[in-house]
Write a structure and sequence with these properties.
This protein is an alpha/beta fold and 230 residues long. The chain is built from eight helices and eleven strands.
Length: 230
């Protein structure tokens, strides 16, 4: 049974999410501020975190930053703020997805399942066959779910890994932002530009010596992104 940690200072919201997640067979842990969430994560195995932005003691933004120092578990941020800048901030600090309040509980459950599928696939090293993709000094071993640059291991989030894997599997092919979003998120690319751009920037920061002059992950202006053939 997979365990979901739900963190929000509004107990009614936590209880409502709890009901829907338990109906889908998940075990649910509850926290009401960021410090309590961090304490639970230190003591128990958690497979996904749903966390609100505005909370007492430690807000969701700073809690996510601390979590990302040591863990790559999927994180879905909840917030009543709807501006693009708030969504980008959430993604910038390491969240995998962002859900605006008020939200449809069934949509939230669907996003939870989607993130868990990606995370499980990323952590599964038992795939059959050899699946190693290289481009110069950049390499992905999809059997081991490992990324290296010039022999040095690179730590990516599940979303970052899947975007890079998509491009590495199709070296030389240009993918538009919408194509990337629909391939990775498995939903229509509505307002996908900022979401994809943030993740692309994160990947570049991790795999490129100089992200402003990338060797691997190239932009084709007005079209999309690609990995050049080695």
């Amino acid at each position: 049974m997979q365990t979901i940690l739900v963190c929000d200072d509004d107990k009614e919201i936590v209880d409502a999410i709890d009901i829907y997640l338990q109906q889908e067979g998940f075990r649910v842990l509850k926290a009401y501020d960021g410090e309590e969430a961090l304490a639970i994560l230190r003591e128990q195995e958690v497979h996904l975190l749903i966390i609100d932005v505005m909370m007492p003691k430690l807000d969701g933004i700073h809690a996510t930053l601390k979590i990302r120092e040591a863990s790559s578990i999927p994180i879905i941020i909840l917030s009543a703020k709807t501006e693009d800048s708030d969504k980008i901030l959430g993604l910038n600090i390491g969240a995998d997805d962002y859900v605006e309040k008020p939200f449809n509980p069934l949509e939230l459950v669907a996003r939870v399942k989607s993130q868990l599928r990606r995370y499980t696939q990323l952590g599964n090293a038992a795939d059959i066959g050899s699946a190693v993709y290289t481009a110069g000094g950049l390499s992905i071993n999809d059997d081991l779910k490992e990324v290296t640059v010039d022999g040095e291991a690179v730590k990516l989030t599940p979303i970052e890994y899947n975007i890079l894997l998509l491009l590495m599997k199709n070296q030389g092919k240009v993918f538009s932002i919408n194509q990337i979003y629909e391939s990775i998120w498995n939903e229509d690319a509505i307002g996908a530009d900022n979401t994809v751009a943030v993740h692309i920037r994160h990947i570049r920061e991790k795999i490129e010596i100089n992200p402003k002059e990338p060797r691997y992950l190239k932009v084709v202006w007005g079209v999309g992104y690609k990995i050049d053939k080695s």
